Amino acid sequence: MARAIFVTVEGIEGSGKSSVISFLSRFLRKKGFKVKVFREPGSTKIGEKIRDILLDRRNKTLSPHTELLLYMAARTQLIEEKLSKALSKYDFVICDRFFDSTLVYQGYAMKMGEIVDKSVKLFNLGVVPDLTIVLDTEVTNSLERIKIKDRIESRPVVFHRRLRDGYRKLARKYPQRIKLIDAEKNLNALFRDIESLITKYIWKTRIKR
Ligand code: TMP
After folding, report:
1. Are 125 and 80 in contact (CB under 8 A)?
2. Contact 35, 91 (CB under 8 A)
3. What is the pLDDT of residues 101-137, one digit of tens each?
4. Which residue among 5, 19, 25, 104 has the highest number of C-beta atoms inside a 10 angstrom radius?
5. In the chain, how many domains are there?
6. Closest C-alpha to ligand 1, atom 11
């Protein structure tokens, strides 16, 4: 059975992932592809409960390792409950964040390094995105767009600068899979870039449905 193209969208807080994902899914559906969208952490009942714990600002004592394990738990739940099935049923599966978020947030910005690399390898359960779009934006502009900040968004600006740096490093490390897109442009110009990236990808991989 044909497997879906698995696309993940990544970026720092307020980088515009939601608008890009709704544009991308509309664009692909108009072309006649079957598209399924998930978000991480979340998209399952258990994953959404884990998300609430992770983002709740009142959870000030949540330890870094617990945080890492909760992200892993939400991810394995999504893969085992929904994502694996979706990959065999749809043409495109789009996920708002996936393991690159863990590599950048917990691995690079929180400096947990090796333990993160190992756990990501173990708990992605063999699922690796075909294409990862990283929306690259200026930190202060992005943070200004967020009105009510959650536990992670409220971290100091230096943390968010490390995130941007981490994504750029990751994009340099995996240039085939990860595409860095300048998301400082106006929305229409950004959508044109996304359209051209995905069109090239479809052409290159000769996906026909
Ligand atoms: P968002 O998807 O609405 O941006 O919220 C998810 C938050 O969780 C965001 O701050 C990024 C963070 N996150 C991690 O720190 N590690 C991860 O592995 C994932 C998936 C998200």
Report:
1. yes
2. yes
3. 999 999 999 999 899 999 999 999 999 999 999 999 9
4. 104
5. 1
6. 101
